[in-house]
Structures are given as C-alpha cells and as structure tokens.
Design a protein that fits this description.
By secondary structure, the protein is α/β, with parallel strands linked by helices. It has helices spanning 13-24, 31-39, 43-50, 52-66, 84-93, 103-110, 123-133, 135-139, 152-161, 186-190, 204-210, 228-240, 255-267, 281-287, 325-330, 332-342, 344-358, 362-382, 397-406, 414-431, 437-449, 462-468, 497-504, and strands spanning 2-6, 27-30, 72-75, 95-100, 143-146, 164-167, 174-179, 195-200, 215-219, 248-253, 273-278, 292-297, 300-307, 312-316, 474-475, 478-484, 490-496. β8 (195-200), α11 and β9 (215-219) form a beta-alpha-beta unit. α12 (228-240) packs across α13 (255-267) and α17 runs antiparallel to α18.
Amino acid sequence: MRVYLSGPMGAGKSTLAREAAAALGLTPVDLDARIEAAAGKSIAEIFRDEGAQAFRVLERSVALAVAAEDDVVVALGGGTVVDPEVRRLLRRTGTLLTLTAPPRVLARRVGAGANRPLLGADPLEALTKLVRERAAAYAECHGRVDTSKPGAVDAIVRLARDRRVLVALGERSYVVEIGRGVRSRLPARIEGRSTLAVADENTRRWRDAIAPEARSLDLPAGEEHKSLETVARIWDEALDAGIDRRGLLVAVGGGVVGDLTGFAAATLLRGVGFGQVPTSLLAMVDSSVGGKTGVNRPAGKNLVGAFHQPQFVLCDVETLRTLPAREAVAGRAEIVKAAWLQGEEAVGALEAEAEALRAGDLDAHVSAVMRSVALKARIVEDDEREADLRRLLNLGHTLGHALEAAGAYRRWVHGEAVALGLVAAARLGVALGRMRSTEQERLLRLIARLGLPVDLDAALSDEVFGYVLQDKKREGDRVNFVVPGRPGETTVVPLSLEELRRGLES
C-alpha cells in the first residue's frame, strides 16, 4: 500500500502522515525531510543557494524514488504534484489524496512563514494564489480531505482502503468508486444541489432507495428508446423541476439510461452537472466512464452525441444480483475487450476468474471492474475525445454496433454484439497477419467460457455490412477497424467494405 498526501502548506500533511501511518500499520515518510537529507541542507537554504528550479529538480528525483517504496504514507511537498510526470506516477502507484483547508486556516497554521520561501510578506495572499494556480494539479487525486474539520485521519484511512479509480482530467477529474454498497454514497454527492434522478422501469427501485428526496423521472427500458424524443423528456422534466446551471442530473441504470441522461446534461442549459450510478456490468466497465453520451438514429447507433464527463461514478456490484441472466452474461464482453487491450497479465487474471464470474461471485466482479475501469481511465486521460489512442476502445464495436442496428436492437443486446465483434476482429487479425491462430483460439475460448456467443457466420448478412458503412468511425469509403494481435498489441486499420468482407469470409 502506498498513500500520498498532497496539498498546500499548512494543510497538515506531515502530522497527518504520521497519524494515518500508525492507523494503517504503515511507515510515515516526509518528502521534505528526504530532500533535506539528500541535499545536506534545509529547504530554505536550497532555495537561497540554488534557486527554485534546482529545488524542483531535486524534489522530483526524490519523489520518484519514494514512489518505489512499499507500505508508506508519504507527506509530499506543497508543489510536488505540479510536475505532471510525478503526479501521474503517484496516482498510478498508490492512493493520492489532496488535503485542503480554507486559505485563512492555512495562513494561520503557517504563521509568519518562517522557512517557507514561497510565502513572502503576506502568507494569506500567497497561499490563496498558490491554491488557485495549483487547482488543476490538486484536483487530480483519489479523494479530498478537509483538514479544518474533525476526523481527517479517519477520512484518510477510509479513502486509502477504498477501491477507487481516478480519471485525471485537471479540474474536471472524477473518481470511479467500486465495491459493495457504494450506491449508498449518492445522498452525500447530491446534497445541497437541485437534482433530477433518472432511471428506467427496471432500475427505479435502486433510484428510489438511494435518492428518495430527489426529483425523479422513469424512462422506458430498451435500446429502441435511445432517441432524441426520450432526451426531450429529460430536458422538460429538468426544466420543470427548476434545474439551474449548478444543478445535477443523475443516471441510475444501465448504458442506455446513462447515455441518455449524459447527453441531456451536456446540452441542457449548455451543460449541467452529471453523475452515474451504473447498475449493469456493461455500464460499470464501459459506458459510465469516459464521458461519451449519445442517442441512436435510423442510420445507426450513437450517431448523435457529445463528450460530457460525469462528476462521480458509483459502481455497486450488489446491483448485479438483480440483472436478468442475459444481461449479466452480456456485460462480460467489455471485460474481455479491456483485458485483451491491457495485456497478458489482465488476460491471465480474467481466465483465472472466468468460473467465479459465471457463478456471480461479487469479489471477482469487483476485481474485473477495477481492471477494466483502470484501463479506460488511462486511455481517456491521454485521449479524451478519441483523436488517437482512445479509438482502441472500439475493439469489437464496429461490427457489434452494426449487428445491433441490423437486428433493430432486439436480436442482440450490446454485450452479445460486442462479443461477436471481438470474434470478427480476431478473424480479421489472422487474415491480415497481425494475429496468430493460437491467439485467435485463445480469445474465442475465453469469450465462450464466459457464456458469450461466438458463432459469427450465423449473424452476418448484407444488412449488417450496410450498417458498417454508417459507423461514426468511417472516413470516406473506409472504416477504421480495431484489429487485435497478442494481448496488449492492438492497432487501427482503415479497411474498405470489400476488404472487411473478404477478411471475415476467409
């Protein structure tokens, strides 16, 4: 376990690192003390003798070394996380927490600023400016703790033990919380905000149990209702409820509810807040994370939409117990996709968990969701709007979406179509010389072990190929098709419809 405490001067990092380490049975580390030991002089002397830039170089070096230590609670310097590389390493190797307090509290704690080179003559003004300038860096954390309030140590310990995945996007960063019972955290997320909680006829029981005070709206269930007409219902209900620019729309349900509610939030009043409580496996591992929202049109799936990141995501695996068997199985396709994109370790872990997942083991689902969300978070951080790397997340989806549309969203549920899309991608990989037949067999065997369909030939038709050309990833007469190789090695290949058909029929 590694816990990193960030935040401005006066937030209490050093003291709370010692206290939290004692509570967790870990070793406290003070980064400033390590820097002084390495330099053989105090922080103030480093600034005086060598300047701020030299201090930051030394701080970076020491921080990177500390990040390799195990079972520690580290009190960072106030500006440590301003370095993007250091910040990325810390959040990916442990739990990064930002300690906060009002500037006046911070100024009172640091006093006159003795031995604090950045404070100058007016600590309050300097601290207010530093916090403002570092807001984006401080926002990229797994959790925030207000140290001006009681219970800071308990909050740090709780966050350190929690299952959380950070989607780091500067001041728009958010955390995906994963585990049993996390749906009960919703009231704290919406407290003090005008909220419309949207569910469908299958998930309203979850919504009513966790947000009884919020204004509610029930939608008809099913992909066939993923339309602008349904979005208009959300707009009108929100406006009737008096939702303002500080308001919040919350989706409680599967991917359809999430996409509809997210698109409504992106466009209502030119953008209002949005939260997700996904209740299906598919939504937990895919659609609830990353900010893609949209609706279907007669020409194909998700052809109208927007990027609009949620402010929180609560993945409660207990909701999976009430899924219809078909939906429970279908969600595993996205887990297979994520594992193959991630690499050998993730594929091996999924192969080892396959039987537990089929048996409905909730701990196995927590692990699988964590891995899938962690992969997606990293890709979204690097390519939020699908200009390059994020296109890999479409593995299995180009043909999958075409299958759904050709079947009028009734023959196949999304996960089943993605599973067949993965079969198609593997077949193309072999035909193009990018995947060995043994790897293809391994992927198909894993898909089948998880109870998903693999009979691609029975699903193909001229109508399906017609919908492929309507895919939103089309460029001219070619479609950017994601083609897998070995686990962790996947590429995007532009293919004409004829090349696609020839590869799939080989």
